[in-house]
């Protein structure tokens, strides 16, 4: 049913693309990977990431990082995600090197050329149309752009204006993937980022920042509207939304 999965995103699903980059955003050392067979891989996790679990449920092998994928491996999919990457190219520059979403899409085009050479144009197009394209972007555009004091972004845009800017760019990027043959999309919304450790560390009261949690709500709302429009206007496309912000709202987290 699903011959392959192609993954685009940031540190939540990066599985090694930053390992060989001159970047401060790396996870190829302990304690990362302490529960992963073989140890650290570049995943920002003790073990599997969300997309690893999805691949396993689909009966696919673990999807290789673009930096490591070769030969027939790409026929099962490729992971292009890069820690510190954003929808905007300028996002994440504090970490030096990273692979923004636009570059991840260009990397997919290179993979697509390999698949087309292997399968032929007709069979490649048919296979790509049945693949899942998982996209998890946007977190860094807030954490490592809008909320960073060395970026002018917060002075240029209010919350709604910035969400509009992001989703305008996001729409263009997803349409590019569609024009390259992608049809089945899974988009992850932004979680409650006011509760992540880097934000909690700045709290004077030791609790989640509701200001940051509220900040990202216009983005999630815009993404849902965008998806409805794309589903209605792109023939054969199917966009599905993962509401990350509410996946764990009934679980008490002990920090």
Folded structure, characterized:
This protein is an alpha/beta fold and 255 residues long. It has a single domain (5-14, 47-246), classed as Rossmann fold (3-Layer(aba) Sandwich). The chain has helices spanning 50-57, 101-119, 121-130, 139-146, 153-156, 159-179, 197-200, 210-215, 217-233, and strands at 5-9, 77-79, 132-136, 184-188, 238-242. A five-stranded parallel beta sheet has the order 2-1-3-4-5. Strand 1 (5-9), helix 1 and strand 2 form a beta-alpha-beta unit. Helix 2 crosses helix 3. The model is unreliable at 250-255 (pLDDT under 50). Pfam families: Lipase_GDSL.
- Beta strand %: 5-15%
Give the class-level CATH name: Alpha Beta
Percent helix range: 25-40%
- What letter string, H or E per element, gives the SSE order? EHEHHEHHHEHHHE
From the 3D coordinates, which CATH architecture would you assign? 3-Layer(aba) Sandwich
CATH topology: Rossmann fold
User: How does the helix and strand content classify structurally?
Assistant: alpha/beta
Instruction: Note the overall shape.
Output: globular
Give the N-terminus to C-terminus distance in angstroms: 40 Å
Indicate the low-confidence ranges by residue numbers. 250-255
Mean pLDDT: 95
- What would you report as the Rg, rounded to the nearest angstrom? 18 Å
Protein name: Zinc finger protein, putative isoform 2
Keywords: Hydrolase, Lipid degradation, Lipid metabolism, Secreted, Signal
Family: Belongs to the 'GDSL' lipolytic enzyme family.
GO molecular function: hydrolase activity, acting on ester bonds
